[in-house]
Design goal:
By secondary structure, the protein is of the alpha/beta class. The chain contains twelve helices and eight strands. Strands 3-2-4-1-5-6-7-8 form an eight-stranded mixed β-sheet, sandwiched between helices. The longest helix is centred in the N-terminal third of the chain and has 17 residues. The mean pLDDT is 95. The protein binds guanosine-5'-diphosphate.
C-alpha cells in the first residue's frame, strides 16, 4: 500500500504525544526528530525534509500549540497543513487553449507511464469536457510504442496520428497538428519518446517538438515508485522544457512517498493528476489535502 511505512511511523510518533496535557519544548523537538527520520526513510529529498521540519517546528513551538489544551491534535494539524502546502495546497486544473486545439505534450522517462497516462487523460477529457482528442505518436524509437498508443486509442475511441518509425518526430507532430486542424479536434495529446535516463539527444528532440507545437501543457509523467529520483529527473526536464505540470503514476503500488512529497517543492510545478492503476479510468485529479490525509492515515 502507498505510504504504508511513512503512515505507520507518523501515527506512532503522534500516539506518543497523546495523553500529554502540555508539551514541553523538548517534547516538540523529540517529535520533530522522529518526523524527520520518517520522511527521510520514505525517501523524501533532504532539503525538502529540512525546510519542512523547520517550518513545522517553528509553528509547533508557537502559542497555537504551547497554549493549547489539546497540543497533540494541534501538532497533527500543523503537520497535516504543512504536508498539504508541500504538495501545492490546491488542485491545479489543466491549462486550456483559448482556441482549439489545446495541445498536451507528455514527457518523461521510459516506463514512467506516458502512453498509459495519455490514454487516461483522453478518457478523462472525453468524459468531463466532451473532448474529441487526437493522439500523435511521436515516439519513433520503439515500434511497440506506436502499437501501444494505437491500442489505447482504440480503447478510448480516439484516433491516433502516426507515420511509423522512419520519420523525424518533429515532422510527424507538424503533420499531426495539420490533421487535427482539418478534423477540428479540440485536444491533441502528443506521446513522446522516453529514455532510461535524461540524455541530450532526447532533450533536443523534445525542445524541437515544443518549439513547433507550442503546447499548452507539458506534463512530466513521473513514476512514484522511483522516490526522490523522480523529483530530480523532473527538475532536469523542467530546466530544459519548462514543464507545466506533473502526473504522478503508480500510486496504487507500495510507493514510500519520496516522489509525492519532493516533486512539487523541487520543481515548483504542480502535480495535476495521479495514476492509480493500469486501467484507463484509473486517473484522478490531484488534491494535496486529500493526499496529506492519506499519508497521515
Ligand atoms: P511509457 O514508456 O512512459 O509510455 O510507459 P507506459 O505507459 O508503457 O507504462 C509502463 C508500465 O506502467 C505499463 O505496464 C503500465 O501499465 C504501467 N502503469 C502506468 N501507469 C500506471 C499506474 O498508475 N499504476 C500501475 N500499477 N501501473 C501503471
Amino acid at each position: 500500500m502507498a505510504f504504508e511505512g511513512l503512515s505507520e511511523r507518523l501515527q506512532k510518533v503522534f500516539s506518543s504525544l497523546r495523553g500529554k496535557g502540555k508539551l514541553s519544548e523538548d517534547d516538540v523537538r523529540q517529535v520533530m526528530r522522529e518526523v524527520r527520520m520518517a520522511l527521510l526513510e520514505a525517501d523524501v529529498n533532504f532539503d525538502v525534509v529540512k525546510d519542512f521540519v523547520k517550518q513545522v517546528r517553528e509553528r509547533a513551538l508557537g502559542s497555537e500549540v504551547m497554549d493549547s489544551l489539546t497540543p497533540s491534535q494541534q501538532v497533527i494539524k500543523i503537520v497535516d497543513d504543512e504536508l498539504t502546502k508541500l504538495m501545492g495546497t490546491e488542485a491545479v486544473p489543466l491549462n486550456k487553449a483559448p482556441h482549439i486545439p489545446t495541445i498536451i505534450m507528455m514527457v518523461g522517462l521510459q516506463g514512467a507511464g506516458k502512453t498509459t497516462t495519455a490514454g487516461k487523460l483522453a478518457k478523462y477529457l472525453m468524459a468531463n469536457d466532451k473532448a474529441r482528442p487526437l493522439f500523435i505518436a511521436a515516439d519513433v524509437y520503439r515500434p511497440a510504442a506506436i502499437e501501444q498508443l494505437k491500442t489505447v486509442g482504440q480503447q478510448v475511441g480516439a484516433p491516433v496520428y502516426e507515420e511509423g518509425t522512419d520519420k523525424d518526430p518533429v515532422e510527424i507532430v507538424k503533420n499531426g497538428l495539420a490533421k487535427a486542424a482539418e478534423d477540428k479536434n479540440d485536444y491533441v495529446i502528443i506521446d513522446t519518446a522516453g529514455r532510461l535516463e535524461i540524455d541530450e539527444k532526447l532533450m533536443d528532440e523534445l525542445t524541437r517538438i515544443k518549439e513547433l507545437a507550442h503546447p499548452n501543457e507539458i506534463l512530466f509523467v513521473a513514476d512514484s515508485m522511483t522516490g526522490q529520483v523522480a523529483a530530480k529527473v523532473a527538475a532536469g526536464f523542467d530546466e530544459q522544457l519548462d514543464i507545466t505540470g506533473v502526473v504522478l503514476t503508480k500510486l496504487d503500488g507500495d510507493t514510500r512517498g519520496g516522489a509525492a512529497l519532493s516533486i512539487r517543492s523541487v520543481t515548483g510545478k504542480p502535480i495535476k493528476f495521479i495514476g492509480q492503476g493500469e486501467k484507463l479510468d484509473q486517473l484522478d485529479v490531484f488534491h494535496p489535502d486529500r493526499m496529506a490525509n492519506r499519508i497521515l492515515g
